[in-house]
Amino acid sequence: MSVKPRPVFLEIPNIRLPIPGIVSILHRISGVGLFIMLPVLLYLLSGTLSRESAFETYRAIVSNPLVKLILIGVLWAYLHHFLAGIRFLFLDAHKGLELNTARNTAKLVFAAALVLTVVLGALLW
User: Half-sphere exposure of residue 13, counting CA atoms within 13 Å on the CB side?
Assistant: First the structure.
């Protein structure tokens, strides 16, 4: 009778994903975040073009620094989701599947989303 080897215990916090895996997970998280925030954004913007009082309420809410930080987070989620989505479209078309190319495009998506968020966030703050 042979003894079966014991299963390996995976320590989830100690597993290090490669950058393409991190970009993929952040793509999913940003998509969920955008989906959740969509009704909030629609409610926030509803009526701002039709009534002056609704626009003033909108301005009062958006002038809160915490709300501004949340909106910058939504901006990052949009930019990351958009750029990663373009990357995944290329991967689906079998472009950029080589290991170095996949790593470089993942780094590019990650960096571009952060840089664009900082630039646009600074302009909109």
Answer: 0
